[in-house]
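pasting for the record
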Amino acid sequence: MKPGGKFIFSIVHPAFYTAKWECNEEGIKTSLKVERYLTSIELKQDIWGVTRHYHRPIHFYFNKITNLGFCLQQMFEPKDRKGTGVRADIPLYLFAEFIKS
């Protein structure tokens, strides 16, 4: 990529993807319990057929990209469009824009 070129990516938010919902006494989801966030793992899922998901912490992606000569311009963690209550405050995705040095 030429200097000044943009690289934009989006990923499922790594901080919350493998987290488990915690519920209160009424069974209402109130928070996410994040475990083993810094550990890189591979998960197999069967949603629309068996697929693999590779969990990596955010620094893994950003260090790889900046080591290739890109500079972070902005990062965005949008609210869930269907979110209400506590869920509205937990981003499901992470977007980032980098510029090639």
